[in-house]
Each structure stands twice: as C-alpha cells, then as structure tokens.
Fold each of these.
Amino acid sequence: MKVYGHPMSTCTRKVLTTLAEKGKEAEFVLVDLTKGEQKSPAHLARQPFGVVPAFEADDGTLLYESRAIIRYLDRVLPGTSLTPSQPKPYGFMEQFIGVEQSYFSPAAMKIIMVELFHRGEGSEAAARVAEGRQGVEKVFSVVEPVLGRQQFLAGDAFSLADVTWMPYLGYLGATSAKDLIGKYPNVSAWWNRISARPSWKKVAG
Ligand SMILES: N[C@@H](CCC(=O)N[C@@H](CS)C(=O)NCC(=O)O)C(=O)O
C-alpha cells in the first residue's frame, strides 16, 4: 500500500491516523506541496484535482479523496472496525463526517491558513479569522450537547467521524482559536480523549 501525501496536510493525516488505528504501515510517498509537486503530471495521474492525498492499494487500485480512502481502509484492513455496525451510530458517524466536511473544516481552515500557513495579511486576513471563529463556534455549540451524552461523535466507540475532525482540532489548538476548544467542556474533554490515542500521537508527532 502507498500513501501519496504530505505529513502536514490535514487530509493526509486522516489517512495516516486510520492506518495507525488499524495497525497497518503503508509506504509513504512524499508529494512536496511546498514545491507544487501536487500539480505534477505524475501526481495528476493519481489525483486529477492536483491535491493530496492519493492512495494505491496492493492490487494497484488507485483512490483519491481522503474520506473515501479511510472508509475503504476500514473495510479492507483487519483490526477493530471504525465503522459502527448498528444503524443509529452508523448514521451519527456519517452525519458528523458530513458536518466536518461541510461546516467544521471550512471554518477551521480559514483560521489555520492565516495563522499557521501565513496566507493573507491585514484586515482581509483578520476578517477571515473572525469568520472562521464564528463558524467553529457554531459547530462546537452543536456538538457540545452530543458529546455530553456520549464519548465519541458516533456514540460510545471511536469511529471514522472522530478521525476526520482530529487534524483540524490539532491545528486549531496552535492558533488563537485554542480558547474556543476550552470554552466547550465536552468538546474539550473529547479532544483530550481522542488526541491521547497512540494513532494521533504517531501522526501528529
Ligand atoms: N477533498 C480532498 C481535499 C484535499 C486537499 O485539499 N488537500 C490539500 C492538503 S490538506 C492540498 O493538497 N492542497 C494543495 C493545493 O491545493 O494545491 C480530500 O479530502 O482528499
């Protein structure tokens, strides 16, 4: 198995965390985003939109889109399933993967791109951070009561939904929006719980 990605990329981190949870090592092929390698013909042949990650299975199957790759890996690899078998937690898992993709990561990335990756400056950048904070607060206020009732996004077991949120929470903790995590006690306790997992320590370390 090969993962084509960049270690700092949030979407690559979803794939690496899933592999670590399943106890599987894959060959890591660096696609250097700082050199624009994601737009090279070789990478475009694997990922036609010119972003990372891309994935190659042992049988040569090529996949792209991080959330598709992690669902695939969870199905094909042995080990504890990260997809609930019961309809209700399964529905919650998919719901919160959708919330991450539609609302959480777009808001979080506004802050992360400005503060950690130094994209933009001045009042325009400040406005983007303010907008990002508003979006993150909305999302945290929605998941706060959920995480008061259950340990993880899908229910009482760690799932792919938690995996998809981790890279953004990890980076947010290094921005001015760190205070927002602390403001929501259940979100904060959940983040402490999931970020203590060996898989995340391996990937974020
Ligand atoms: N929907 C894609 C998004 C991938 C994506 O945006 N990757 C970023 C890094 S996290 C990237 O490659 N950015 C470089 C670029 O936009 O040129 C996925 O989930 O795999």
Amino acid sequence: MRFCDTHAHYDDEAFDADRTRLLGRDLRDEGVEFVVNMGASLEGAERSAELARRYEEVYAGCGIHPDEVGIFGEEGSSQALSVMARLHGLLEQPKVVCVGEIGLDYHWMVQPKEIQRKWFAAQLHLAAELNLPINVHSREAAQDTFDVIVKHHTRAGKTLSGGIIHCYSGSVEMARAYVKLGYHIGVGGVVTFKNARVLKEVVQTLPLESLVTETDCPYMAPEPVRGTRNDSRNIRYVIAKIAALREMDEEACAAALLKNAKDVYRLA
Ligand SMILES: [Zn+2]
C-alpha cells in the first residue's frame, strides 16, 4: 500500500535521534510516498525548507503558526516587512508547496484574537499572490477561521488556490462548505479515536475526493499506537479506518487519498 503524509513536523526534536534514517529510507520502505513538513515558526519554516532540500520524498510548507505571529511585531514595521520578505523567499523555493501551517488558535491564545486574524489574513494574501495552496490550523476557532478564509477568498482579482484544513474538527456542514470553496479536509489519528463522532461522520459522508491523510507527527498517533511518538508510517491505521467507515477496499482507498494529496500540492 502506498500513501502520504500531508502534514508532519520532522524538524521536531522528537526525531533528532532517527530523522535521517526515517526520511532517508524507513518511511519510503514502508509505503510512504511523500511527506509535507510544516513550518510553524520562522525558524521552523527554514528548517522545513532545508529538509525538503535534503530528502527526496520531503516537501515543505512554510508559514507562521498563530501561536508565533508575535514575530511580525507592529503592522507595517520594518520587523513585519522583514519577516514577510523571508517567508516570501522561502515560499519561492522549488519544493516548498504550500503556505502553512497558518490559522487561528483560541485554545492557547498566545496572541489576542484580533492579532491572530490579522496575520492569518496577511499570509492568505501571500498565498494568493504566489498562487500556493494553504495548510490551515484551527483550534477552538472553527467559525472565525472559516469567516477569515471566506472574506479573503478573492482579493484584488487574486483567488486563493485551495488547500487543506488540517486536523479537521468542525461540523459536517462546515466541511461541505470548505469543499465547495475548493478545500480538502485533513484526516489524521483522531479519526481512530472512540469519541471522534463528528469527524467519522465527515469521513463517511463527504466525497472521497475531498479527504487527505496526515499525521501532525510527532503528535496525534492513531489507535492502536495512541500515546506513542507518531510518524508517517502510522497513516496505514488512518487509511484502514477511513476505508472501514466508507466500506471500501483499503488499497483502493489509499490510492484515491494519495491522488487527492498530489492534486492539492500539485505533485501529480
Ligand atoms: Zn502541525
């Protein structure tokens, strides 16, 4: 079975001991066709781009996570302009395939909501300008995330070119609305958890073409390895669950989900 991971964090120190072996060989040998490593901070984005340069099967997302948007400082300041310029530079590198992860996090609330929304919107504009898909983090902020994306969908004649709503945790109705706008729904370890009732309904009722697989590793390991350090090989458990929920063959399910991810990131 061949599959892929649309959202991972192999630059995390949890992989310091075996990153080279995993990305250089083990993942590929166990069916992982490619991984998209997400930058979350500016340093993370730089590490992400570096991993993409070093390893054939790794691509990168570069963006500033909502917890990290303090780095922009004041709007219009030289600090803000310099961070944007560095991000812009990274996003033009050949194996950098999306702006991510970006979004809103009202759980930790490291930055006030209004500041988070401002820099989320600014990075959406960057994505539109560069014609890149986005990878969206949204925690306890489902409606605001959707509203910001809708509001900035088209600006100055440029339209956002879709992307992935990572670790999707919203309603079935909202998932449908995202798909209508051209987005994909990121499904990871959570779908294997007992209490993930709504996500299971999303997976059962949305078109298969709108789903993609992800880990968010080192976090979010699926059952039956929940609680351990996660890596992209565990996506096979996620695929088994999606196939079971949709009552379809696992191989066919994996092939379809792989194609969806290639479509989003334009790797086909
Ligand atoms: Zn993540």
